[in-house]
Amino acid sequence: MKKKILYIEDNEQNLYLVTFILEKHGYEVYAAMDGQEGIDSAAKVLPDLILLDIQLPLMDGYAVAKQLRTNPDLAQIPIVAVTSYAMAGDRDKALAAGCTGYIEKPINPDTFMQQVEQHLSKK
Q1: Spatial contact of 51 and 6, defined as CB atoms under 8 Å apart
Q2: What is the 8-class DSSP label of residue 99?
Q3: CATH number of the domain residue 93 falls in
Q4: Structural domain range at position 59
């Protein structure tokens, strides 16, 4: 059975690229364009991994991660921040919000799957 990955991302180009890479590697990808949609989708889909942009409309990725962690059905799902926030302290802020990993944008298509699969194996 295919592993399910939810990608919460408001940028269509990033969403397309990541979805393309993941589907090419045999994953079932679900997309959400904002934080609330992502929270609702996570509860319905119960994905194996959540990829989360930090810069989202309405509710930022930190708030999304915190809210996902309050749901007992979702608490053990790895959440990986995929973000262009790459300043000192941004990784720590993402981890403190409940993310289990951090991938900087722009993603490197050559190493992206390895990074994703590291987090899937921790589940």
Answers
A1: yes
A2: -
A3: 3.40.50.2300
A4: 4-121
